[in-house]
Amino acid sequence: MSASSAAALLSALEATWPAAETLERDGWRLRRGAGGGRRVSAATALSGGADIGAAETAMADWGQTPLFQLRPGDDALDAALAARGYLAADPTEIFTADPARLLDDKPETVRIIRGPTRIALIDEIWAKGGVGPTRLAVMDRAPEPKTYIVARLGDRPAAVAFVAVAGGIAMIHAVE
């Protein structure tokens, strides 16, 4: 994957699962997650050599445990964080597919119901999977276009997900 493609995906990821607050300071993009997850609570270096201590202090001022998100090319930052005792946690997996692969002649085995607002069934399934009010608030913050999906097998719900679009890229979040 090219660096520009990776950058576009990461930008869409950030836009479709937004932090409650974002601040750029001292060479960092700082995110206040408000309980919406680790990725929306992590600092990202905007430039090489950004002062880790400044980011730690800013996150502590928000009442957050310092957490850093590494991007492609952040090898020096990775080493500096490891030297300070940080360990890797919760890597983000991004899978891509050509949308044409979704359009084939195969018979449907799953039916999809989608809509612009959540219904109680979706919230119930997410709640059982640990997706609660703070993560629902992240979905509420995400800009349009976005949709909520229920997949069903027969008459039974089989899965739920949230989808939002940024920069022409659809991101699927909160799959349960």
Q: What can you see in these coordinates?
A:
The strands form two sheets. The protein has a four-stranded antiparallel β-sheet with strand order 4-5-6-7. The chain has a three-stranded antiparallel β-sheet with strand order 1-2-3, with helices on one face. The mean pLDDT is 91. A hairpin with a 2-residue loop joins strand 1 and strand 2. The protein has five helices and seven strands; from the N terminus they run αβββααβααβββ. It starts with a helix and ends with a strand. With 176 residues, it is α+β, with helices and mostly antiparallel strands.
The unreliable regions are: none
Helix content percent band: 25-40%
- State mean pLDDT (0 to 100 scale): 91
Gap between N and C termini: 28 Å
Kindly name the structural category.
alpha+beta
Sheet with the most strands? Answer: 4 strands, antiparallel
SSE arrangement, N to C: HEEEHHEHHEEE
Report strand %.
15-25%
Counted by DSSP, the helix tally is 5
List the strand order in the largest sheet.
4-5-6-7
The count of β-strands is 7
Radius of gyration: 18 Å
Globally, the shape reads globular
Give me the oligomer status.
single chain
